[in-house]
Write a structure and sequence with these properties.
With 389 residues, the chain is of the alpha/beta class. It is 34% helix and 19% strand. The longest helix is centred in the middle third of the chain and has 19 residues, at 131-149. The structure holds S-adenosyl-L-homocysteine and iron/sulfur cluster.
Length: 389
Amino acid sequence: MTANLLDFDLEGLAAFCERLGEKRFRATQLFRWIHQKGAADFDQMSDLAKSLRAKLHGSAHVSGLPVLSCTESADGTIKWLFDVGHGDAVETVFIPEDDRGTLCISSQAGCAVGCRFCSTGHQGFSRNLSTGEILAQLWYAEHHLRKRLGKVDERVISNVVMMGMGEPLQNYNALVPALRAMLDDHGYGLSRRRVTVSTSGVVPMIDRLGQDCPVALAVSLHAPNDALRDHLVPLNRKYPLAELLAACERYLAHAPRDFITFEYCMLDGVNDQPEHARQLIELVRGHRWADGRVGLPCKFNLIPFNPFPESGLMRSPAGRVSEFAALLSDAGIVTTVRKTRGDDIAAACGQLAGDVKDRTQVVERMARRRVVMIHPETPPPSRTKKAEA
Ligand code: SAH
Ligand code: SF4
């Protein structure tokens, strides 16, 4: 079996090249061809020695993921569905804004955490993605969009958020090399502030991330007390709020930003009352550091719940969301309300369900989806159809 070079960060690729008897700078050249130019064909890599190209042909390949569909929202958001084999598919979402282009990447097919308000959580866990499968989403989106926008040598994706399907910190070993390739100057060259890992609160892995690859951290809080959080985010039973906040405190020593972002999904009548806001204020403002300081530097990002039929939950009315935001802001906590993007194509937060749910009909559904599959070479129409009727 030959190696997929998308599975490596630069260190891994250097080790691979060493096994082929090649020097480190060859790995750097190769890495740049793959990630900066989007090349997959070794013969295209003109400055690599012929002998190395011959060795690579026998031992390696660069393989992205098959695209099952590409759907574009009225607001410009684009969602791709990638086939990861055995009936599983994952989703990746590009969100263009005036000053940035953000790619939301999946880390697992499904998710084992099972949050009540999350469509991915409802479908259950299928498997971890490999480093190559995580990176393939960025590799494909970046180079596809460059071609489409006619920006051959200009970066299109300026920010990455690990907020697609799955809990990234439950796929730690594959995640970290992927993050390193995103940050590498010979790779995507993104700054640590522009790469965000979002977690439901896997405390030991928050600590490891701080040591190994401290990028921006977002923590999905969703409740101000353990009783409610146990119910909404079952992982809270293992890592309750006090432990989670202590891990956030430790992370701040390494974090590229001097605050933690707390995400809070606004659920009608569940966690959106003034009393919940007051408890949240007390939780973060009253947090006592190990050294006696008080108050956890943080920002809140309130996410209007994106409903899906099985959840039995409803979105908080807009007025209640702004009242809630005002209570936090008045207490001196920077609070934003997330604009919902791409909800007409089910690409908004928590609507990503991939294709794992109904395995019995998966082959049939995939065949139907292939009808609207868009190939990388084909310039997409200005607006594609919804992937599925
Ligand atoms: N597993 C990670 C990252 C993926 S979820 C995590 O939970 O943080 C990305 C964000 O979308 C999280 O904050 C999650 O709580 C939120 N989310 C999930 N389902 C949602 C829904 N139906 N509506 C709005 N936000 C949702
Ligand atoms: Fe998993 Fe995050 Fe969804 Fe919870 S919100 S089920 S952790 S993907």
